[in-house]
Amino acid sequence: MALGLVGTPQVMVKPVAVGWVMIPVGPGGAVGLAVAVLMGDQADFWSSVSPLSVRTWYSQVRPSTERVREAYDAVRSGVPVYVAALEASEAAVRLYAARLLAWFPEEEGLLGPTLADLIRREPEPVVAATACVAAGLSCPDGSEALVGALSTRRDSADLVERWSAVLGLSRMLRRPDRSLVRDLYSCLFWAVEPVPHWPFLEGDMASLAALTIADLNPDVAGDRIDVLAERAAAADPTTDNVTLLRALLDAAFPEPVPDTAEFDDPTLVQQRTLATLLGSNILQGGAMVAMLLGRYNLPDSEPRLRTWCSG
Fold this sequence. Notes:
Elements: E1 14-18, E2 21-25, H1 29-38, H2 42-49, H3 54-60, H4 66-76, H5 79-85, H6 91-101, H7 108-121, H8 125-138, H9 144-153, H10 159-172, H11 178-190, H12 205-214, H13 221-233, H14 241-252, H15 268-278, H16 287-295, H17 302-310
Antiparallel strand pairs: 1-2
Helix pairs in contact: 1-4, 5-6, 6-8, 7-8, 7-9, 8-10, 9-10, 10-11, 10-12, 11-12, 11-13, 13-14, 13-15, 14-15, 14-16
């Protein structure tokens, strides 16, 4: 079924005044109101406090105003309408309703069972994919039923559906296993084009994967390095060495190396990362490699790094 623009069904129209703005709240209109509330910068939201609520985001990052709180409460009051819209016959209505539910983790008790049911029965892959990501954001505690529903979508032949399940699960599970980490990095490296109709970050799955990876529990660092070391060992001329280098450094060095550090000072995981870099060809990227190494206060070329590591 092709997904197209869908107007707000008249039966669900509920005008809500927000300051001087009057916007209909329904499966279509609510999305417009949510965009107005969020003021457009999704990446700022995701990287700042994800997966906390929009209300918390505004209290921490943006100046809080009564109009903003009223707008958020107005959109949140429509959650029962958005849940009902998940039963619509039009795939686009179900998609936008699922996308909108991603913003309300305060409603996890209601949304967990609702999204689990949708994920299990939804026939359209892109709608199921949207629901998987929405579940990861709105239900960070991840009930057994919800985790089970997302896990069923990891076996999908549709990559968007499969990677969306991985994105959702990675936000729910306190300690994702290595196979999940591997799939998360597959999304980062291979989702290079915007995904049509996937309604997060304008279809940019790789950026959402990067933000999800940044939020992983620090205890996963060893698995991240192992997965990336496998990629480094298998690197070929088509490999994006700069992205791979940045992923390795991000996983191993949450903070730049101190100016006075000797090679023995970094952790074993960090030393293993440096050994991986020196045993691969991913340091052959010229100025970008030097810039990335310098960002972590490491010697900015392969010869200098090799000398530093040899002590």
